[in-house]
Amino acid sequence: MNRMVLFLSILTLFLIQCVQKERRPTAVENKNSSYMVAEKINYEICKNPQKNYLEQQILEKVLPTYLQNHEADWEKKIPIKCVRFAQKNFKGSYAYCDTEHDRPVVTAPRPCLTESYTTLIYNAYHDVKNCFNLDPRGSFLQIMIESGFHLNAINKTGFDAGISQFTKNGILRVLDTNLMRKTREQLLITSSPSCQRVSNVFDDLQKESSGVDQRCSMMSVPQNPYRSLVLHYLHTLKDQIFFKTEFLSRRPEISNVVDQEILEQFVYMAYNRGITGTLRLIDGYIMSRKKVNHQITKADLNLIQNLSSARKILKNDSDKRKILKKSRIKNLNFAEYAMIHDQTYLLTMAEARDFVKVYLGEECF
Fold it and tell me: What is the pTM of this model?
């Protein structure tokens, strides 16, 4: 069996386990849980059609079931105010899209934050997470940074598009080996309500859709935000399998302390800076710990838990940072090491985490 066949076999098995895993009750489903209490959200009402363009498309093209409350179907959830907060505070750019075959028009204002719009995004995020047995807390900060949970967020320079900010290379990577088609086949045979809602709008995608001329394939309704979020999962899934089968087997220094939580953090980091850059950073950290005879622990590698303390290091003046970079500090976690080595993505994530924590505590992550 060659390497590609082995890879696909592992991938197919992983997909089957994801969509057919038996659902188990959790504390989140307790009637006394704060997540079961509907919170008052002041949604926007926009009369200007220039801001209300997504609301009009949603009401015309999206089936009513996608705008209803489906919290009873989800094993894990975050409050809808988390998504609303991210949408309200996003400072990026937006695009107009009429159909999935269009080239984005990058002159759109921020869409009106109506109840329909925010609910659609909230439902899609949780349906995809629940369908594939993922914790919505795990990628909240990443999606907040990438798109602010906006359907039509766009990078005007590279045309990274949609809620998951897909590039041409990212789309082509997921389209390789017919991964989308295989995923939909698995979704269609599950009885999960979340998976059924995903499969009803998750159709196949052709390679030409990766081009800028059709980048609306990542932003148009009714296919999105579901399509973009599933592709985000498939992209990170391929990275997870790489880390499990290729990376950790060659790094005995950390293989015994990298659990699923740490693995997902590596994958989210790789989503932004690429596999090569992420591996280089991790290997650099391993070498730095060897120099001071420090055995790496899970606590050392936990990016999310260490982001705030690491952010303080980056605030130091340049001379202090140079000293830190050259010195052999025994107690230095991976987040701090990354900050010292100018990882601006982690700085952005740290700032976002601290910002959300001030207003919403730790309910979102």
Answer: 0.85
